Amino acid sequence: MTQVRKLAYGEKSEPAYDVRLAMQEAARCLLCIDAPCSQDCPVGTNPSKFIRSIRFRNFKGAAKTIRENNILGASCGKICPQERLCEKGCSRCGIDKPIQIGRLQSFAMEQEKIFGMKVLEKAPSCGKKVACIGAGPSSLGAAAELAKRGVAVTIFDENKEPGGLLRYGITPSRLDDATIDQDIAAIKELGVTFEQNHKVSREEVAELAKKFDAVYVGVGLSTSKVLKFVKGWDKQGVDTALNFLKNARVKNGQIGDLGKVVIIGGGDVAMDCASTAKQLGAKSVNVVFIETMEEMPASKKELDYITELGVPVLPFFKPLEIKGESKVEAISFASMDDESQVTFKADTVIFAVGQAPTEGFADLKQDGNIFLGGDMVVSRGRTVVESVQSGKEAAFAIADFLKI
Amino acid sequence: MKKVDLSIDFLGVHCENPFFLSSSPVCHNYEMISKAFDAGWGGVFYKTVGVFIADECSPRFDTHRKEGTPFIGFKNMEQISEYSWQENAEIIKKLKKDYPTKVMGVSIMGSNEEEWALLAREMTKAGADILELNFSCPQMTSHAMGSDVGQNTELVEKYTRIVCENTHVPVIAKMTPNITHIEVPSIAAKKGGAAAVSAINTIKSICGIDVENMCGRPVVNGVSSISGYSGAAVKPIALRFIAQLKQHPELQGFPVSGIGGVETWQDAVEFLLLGAENIQVTTAVMQYGYRIVEDLKEGLAFFMEEHGYTSLRDFIGKAVPNIIPCENLDRSFQIVPKIDYDKCVGCGRCYTSCFDGSHQAIDWDADKHRPTITDRCVGCHLCLNVCPVKDCITPGEIKFKKGKEAHEVKIQHDFDYLP
Ligand SMILES: Cc1cc2nc3c(=O)[nH]c(=O)nc-3n(C[C@H](O)[C@H](O)[C@H](O)COP(=O)(O)O)c2cc1C
Ligand code: SF4
Ligand code: SF4
Ligand code: SF4
Q: Is any atom of ligand 2 closer than 6 Å to the C-beta of A36?
């Protein structure tokens, strides 16, 4: 590739549509009936409806449709893997290429911001209160859905700012703070209160269950896995994906010299680590994973993005050993068919091989007035939008339980 | 959003919103109109009922296209209803019964006094809330009907009077744009007793030629006809006729129903600002379906909320005084455009158009690929209109001509009103 894209840490990865470009894209939409895009959104955002509203210049109406259906509508517009959700079955593929639904969604949500729209309003109280543990996508989804029914919801979250994985897991070039804050503001409009910097321990769950009419646990999978069969996994310079991403975000990219970086894993999180490392000025970045290109779990959009940034990927290789004295110096891999071996010089090795439940919560079960949701219980592909839906569904169950 | 009241009393008839289907195939039977009412349309002007029963050709439509997939103009060779007036009366009766809050306008067309009288009586009996007189279909197979009648003031007045004598409901005369002064037959309709006029019906057109068949489109077995043009492309012409109607001294306070190229709520607001009290739509519905009313209504409601309007009458007609004769325009200044070089992509469209189409007032830096506006600029704003980048060229400094005193000048908003 002759042209590698340079992008500073946090710099927007995709320019926003202005109204002309949005209209041009919306005019490409075929305005289908029984639209595949609307059927394929896990949380029912209803793209065919909001795109039609854009097409007929009802921009505020577009924002309203999104916000009413998807409480994280602004964030989802930017980070959903649209190509395997709403855009996948887009009828326009039969002519040329799918409608850029995510970008139109972002355009619509921008109108919400510009006009200071308040789509959702606080509902009259139903007299019940629910605690939601965690301020990630599923908890936010559950909280919003309950608040719409008049429940007094308090969110308890360990981090400084709400958002969970949205804020601390996804690289800011793809999802900036302002967008997350916009979604959080809508949730606050519903009357949800946030107790940040409050880490709820396993024991405290039971206490909350007494104080509140119900508890929703949506703490997600906040610990990154480490492959302990890889020799040298505990050397200095080995990091886990979520830790790396969070650290970068909290310190606004000021995390020191990364040197040569090797990332193990082929999912979206690995891709975010790769772009982040690249943007933070790593000397080199390599991504290695055990799957073939066909089986690689990352979305095409994400892979294209790191390719654009000049990050090479090596499929079908498994890690063998991390070498070096106390610090990482190199890492060796073998091909999955054991035909060849390769060693990369490395200063930083990042494991991005999946997440495990938050400490102490692994064996938590749905019980009495305690409900679970989000990544802890769904393994449907673990996208933000699916987590929101899982939270929504848990909220329906809680509403049934509370008879509201 | 607070609930915004979109209702309006039009000719004494309460309409839940101003959006009506205009007389055409979009409202020619029970099934269609009930679906449209369910979708949210406030009323209809039922497909023109006649004693004459239309025998239609095939194909009967053609389109005017620009780049991109949707068409912008539409030509049709349809006439009036394919059903007998008796069948239509039954349908109208049933609709009125099942949708008592919706407004049933019924379009009628006779070819002589007896037919007009009969249709007026029968459609009123069937339950019409309003009668619309079709003086304007440009492709009737008889010169005793349609736009040929609409251009004849005597016939317009006579037929309007006969209808008014045979009904108690308000009567609207639907006018043809195939005339220079739409006011003239409109005044005749008013004299005949009409409560309002509606405009425009379709414009006589040839959308294009099939060059191999050497024949206009649509090709009906090797030949074609001049016939009515509608859709987004005719909106500018429709707006002009509405303004002419609203400004004529003899038509002051005479209500108008606006038709022609309405697709979006923004189009509708433009008609309302020019004084239309009711909005009719056909082509956009043929192209996109009844569902467009959702965004028409919601978009209009957002607009009203934003501007603090509580009723349509708060802004209906507000643009009428601001359309003035060319000779009265303030010609004392030039608004020099300014270029935002951060936005400029260096395409040179402004330079090309200014040189080839205006006053050679843009210098082109071929190395940097950047335009500079010079003092040859006359402020025509051709560059601003051709520039592909949003908000790249915008109105800039206001220069007053020699000997003219400086004063405040209102600046045009961008078409999109948005970043
Ligand atoms: C296919 C077609 C059939 C029409 N038939 C009638 C009709 O029967 N009576 C009538 O008054 N106008 C008729 N019209 C004119 C429309 O009611 C309307 O005045 C015109 O199309 C302009 O509005 P639009 O741009 O929204 O289509 C017809 C228009 C079309 C496109
Ligand atoms: S499937 Fe594609 S073309 Fe059809 S409505 Fe959805 S975005 Fe538009
Ligand atoms: S639109 Fe319907 S009626 Fe017309 S030609 Fe096609 S199938 Fe036939
Ligand atoms: S038309 Fe606009 S973008 Fe193109 S050169 Fe001129 S100012 Fe720049």
A: yes
Mean per-residue pLDDT over chain A, rounded: 94
Ligand 4 pocket member B347 (CB < 6 A)? yes
pLDDT along chain B (419 residues), means of 10: 89 98 98 98 98 94 88 95 97 98 98 97 98 94 90 96 98 97 97 98 96 96 96 98 98 98 98 98 98 98 96 98 97 97 96 97 96 97 95 96 96 84
The arithmetic mean of pLDDT across residues A356-378, rounded, is 84
Catalytic-labelled residue, pool B15, B27, B57, B137: B137
Q: Report DSSP letters for A320-335, one per residue.
A: EEEESSSB--EEEEEE
Residue A287's domain comprises: 224-354
Q: Are A171 and A191 in a shared domain? A: yes
Domain count, chain A: 3
Task: Tell me, yes or no, whether B44 lies in a domain.
Answer: yes
Instruction: Classify residue A94 by its DSSP letter.
Output: G
A14-36 per-position pLDDT tens digit = 889 999 999 999 999 999 999 99
Residue B355 and residue B292 share a domain: no
**A155 and A70 inside one domain:** no
**Claim to verify: residue A243 and residue A331 sit in the same structural domain:** yes
Listed in sequence order, the residues at least 6 apart from A16 whose beta carbon sits closer than 8 Å to its beta carbon are: A103, A106, A107, A110
User: The pTM is what?
Assistant: 0.93
Q: How many domains does chain B have?
A: 2
pLDDT of A380 over the 80 cut: no
CA nearest to A161, candidates A178, A174, A147, A173: A178
Centroid of ligand 2 to alpha carbon of A99 (angstroms): 7
| Spatial separation of the C-alpha atoms in residues A395 and A146, rounded to whole Å | 6
Distance between CA B50 and CA B115 in Å, rounded?
8
Kindly report the CATH number assigned to the domain that includes residue B303.
Answer: 3.20.20.70
Residue among A125, A128, A137 at smallest CA distance from A215: A128
From chain A, the residues in CB contact with B266 under 8 A are 57
Q: Is residue B35 part of a domain?
A: yes
CA of A37 to the centre of ligand 2 (A): 6
Is position B392 annotated as part of the catalytic site?
no
Q: Does A396 touch chain B (CB under 8 A)?
A: no
Note whether A115 contacts B263, CB cutoff 8 Å. Answer: no
CA distance B195 to B164: 10
| Structural domain boundaries, residue B282 | 8-322
Closest atom, ligand 2, to C-alpha of A101: 7
Q: Residues 6 or more apart from A149 whose CB is under 8 A from it?
A: A123, A126, A395, A399, A404
The yes/no answer to whether this complex scores an ipTM above 0.85 is: yes
A227-255 residue pLDDT tens: 999 999 999 999 999 999 999 999 999 99
Instruction: Please report which confidence band the pLDDT of residue A373 belongs to, taking 50, 70 and 90 as the band edges.
Output: confident
